[in-house]
Amino acid sequence: MKILRHLPQSVQDIIYTVLGAFFTSFALKGFLVPNDFLDGGVTGASLLFHEYYHFNLGIIIVIFNIPFIIMGMFNVSRRFAIKTFCCVLLLALCLEFIPFQVVTSDKLLVSVFGGFFLGLGIGLAMRAGCSLDGLEVLALYTQKLSSFTISEIIFAFNVVIFLLAGIHFGLERALFAMLTYFVASHIINYVIEGLEEYTGVTIISGKSEELKKKLVLELGRGITIYKGERGFMKDSFDFSQDCDIIFTIITRLEVRRLRNLVHEVDHNAFIFTNSIKEAAGGVLKRKARH
């Protein structure tokens, strides 16, 4: 994906869209459909309808996504709706004309790798600024009409799908569908947010000047300084003093080293971390490839 960043944005979007449709159709024809497996979201609803009535899956996916494409036109943008329609149409063409072979019939492998390639395809499409599964568009629309969060709406929609799968196809099928959805949703997150996860570290210390030198000169990190005020303890609430709050971004492998370095300077320093997805620019070290 880093190679594609040097290409124009429009070219990147086309490549991500084509790859997204390809991998999604591979997941469906190579794993899920031949083994009568289901998934969550609009894709899961399409598969469920296909299992019931045996209509052409590509046509079902297009029809099922049209309402969400219309919602996306009003809730996201016209450009998003057009790109999503093209992507869904491309998926239908891939399902119709690319002769994928069935990879395996092992249920566990079908769930895991079917979910993997499905999540990869949907995630790449979302990278292109469109959607192969309109459930989040529905959730965004419904959220405006109710007090439910997007996550709660998506969860409720999938509960209905998995319940129907359990009632009509047995509990085992429903459980495998849940596993497929679990794998796919995690792969989508990786594709969208980036595999290269960084950790943001905030440090509050009375010895900030010494820590600045250590972080920059010894650890080789870029730092950002916020002007703050420390103190306000229970027994001395009226006492406070100005301080520099240090923020830096490191890889997960460097967290322990940074903590040790800070504690060498100030054992009472206050440190907290948070995950950062796909950081770019500034002074960032690349993680070593193993």
Extended strand count: 4
What structural class do helix, strand and pairing data support? alpha+beta
Number of domains: 2
Radius of gyration computed on alpha carbons: 24 Å
Give the SSE order as H and E letters.
HHHHHHHHEHEEHE
Relative helix content = 55-70%
Poorly predicted runs of 5 or more residues: 286-290
| Main pleated sheet | 4 strands, antiparallel
Shape: elongated
Strand content: 5-15%
What does this structure look like?
With 290 residues, this protein is α+β, with helices and mostly antiparallel strands. The chain folds into two domains: 3-193, no CATH class; 197-277, Alpha-Beta Plaits (2-Layer Sandwich). 59% of the residues lie in helices and 13% in strands. It is built from ten helices and four strands, in the order ααααααααβαββαβ. The protein has helices at 9-32, 41-53, 57-75, 78-97, 107-127, 135-143, 150-169, 171-193, 208-218, 255-265, and strands at residues 197-204, 223-231, 240-251, 270-277. Strands 2-3-1-4 form a four-stranded antiparallel β-sheet, covered by helices on one side. The longest helix has 24 residues, at 9-32. The protein is elongated and about 70 Å long. It starts with 8 loop residues before the first helix and ends in a 13-residue tail after the last strand. Residues 286-290 have low confidence and may be disordered.
